[in-house]
Amino acid sequence: MKADTLAEIIGSDFYTGVPDSQLKALCSYLMDRYGMDPKHHIIAANEGNCASLAAGYHLATGKVPVVYMQNSGEGNIINPVASLLNEHVYAIPMVFIIGWRGEPGVPDEPQHIYQGKVTIKLLEDMGIPSFIIGNDTTDEEVETVMNQYRELFAQGKQAAFLIRKGAISYESKRKYRNENVMSREEIIRRIVEASGEDPMISTTGKASRELFEIREAASQGHKYDFLTVGSMGHSSSIALGVSIHKPGTRIWCIDGDGAVLMHMGAMAVIGANQPDNMVHIVINNGAHETVGGMPTVASNIDLTAIAKSCGYQSAVCVADLKELDEALELAKSRNQLSFIEVKCSIGARDDLGRPTRTPLENKKDFMEYLNGLM
User: d(Cα 97, Cα 18) in Å, to the nearest integer?
Assistant: First the structure.
């Protein structure tokens, strides 16, 4: 099904979401049609943020908004769905378009398998009926379902479309770029060199994939790294937990701008607890690159100022490799909570692989290594 046809059938003029690779066609269509016009399209920090934005749109217009997301975002919408949107509270209608990662029977990465299994059940538990759009779904079928959904919307209820892999298409293929000069892989390589044998926690997406391959190429093994292959936005909190309980060891966190935005409150908690052995590095390319490259708002905000206001004792922004190397060495020489924002280009190697060790193997190796440290 074509993304523009799906949008025409739904008939909404307001979309907000967190990009997903299985919704890349829809995201490209929205960027071509609306760009980042906030009256029609907002890429939000997390899926709960999206649901609340969409609720505000409905309150202001009386119309039905659309929230798009990967199914991993269902957990983030449970609270606003149950305590804000629900028909027994404010009865706010909404369409959810959900990319179905980890669909049973479809090969996928480990972090998506259980989420894919419970995707429909979670929607059912929230009282949200769903319709699955696959490669063989006709426009007429979607129109029929949408007419049924409109009856639900009139009652203040919500409904969802689940999108299978490759089920929607769009002719235009947008490419995203910025003016930054450093590649993420080279940035991570410099961090690895600076950190030595210190433990490292890396965020979801291509950052962890690149870290894994850098270790492989150097024959270093993977015991030093905890790869947060899912759970977007939580790697810095994991790093805080490790830092507090391993006070004699410097802990490094490789984070991303989209992940930081998703749960920015974590920075306030980190700053308040002042772990003097933690280095928090945010690689900022202003994009949700792993799922297609759609922009985040991180290019328009001052992350170092935010870090300082949260209580980080040192916070700097670097834009080239020389500045990066200097910042890493300074972070190593201090015994204080450090924050480094690294301006990064958009893009990765076409042949970038994925970790060949399972998450459980990764956890076991990392815990055994931590156990031998102070």
Answer: 11
Q: What is the mean pLDDT of residues 206-222?
A: 95
User: Among 180, 227, 101, 222, which residue's Cα sits nearest to residue 346?
Assistant: 180
Q: Give pLDDT, residue 206.
A: 95
The DSSP-derived string for 21-70 is: GGGHHHHHHHHHHTTT-TTTEEE-SSHHHHHHHHHHHHHHHSPPPEEEEE
pLDDT at 374: 78
Task: Look up residue 313 and give its DSSP letter.
Answer: S
Handedness of CA 79, 81, 87, 91 (dihedral sign): positive
- Dump the DSSP string for 244-286: HH-TTS-EEEEEEHHHHHHTTHHHHHHHHH--TTEEEEEEE-S
Which residue type does 232 have?
M
According to the model, what pLDDT value does residue 141 have? 98
pTM value is 0.95
Structure tokens belonging to residue 336: 């204080």
In whole angstroms, what separates CA 361 from the centre of its chain?
23
- Give me the residues paired with residue 67 across strands: 16, 96
Calculate the average pLDDT of the chain: 97
Collapsed DSSP state (helix, strand, coil) of residue 121: helix
What is the rounded CA–CA span in Å between residue 296 and residue 18? 9
Enclosing H/E stretch for 93:
none
Q: Name the helix (H) or strand (E) containing 317.
A: strand 314-318
| pLDDT above 80: residue 285 | yes
Tell me if 277 sits within 8 A of 243, measured CB to CB: yes
State mean pLDDT over 172-193. 94
What's the half-sphere exposure (Cβ side, CA atoms, 13 Å) at 92?
23
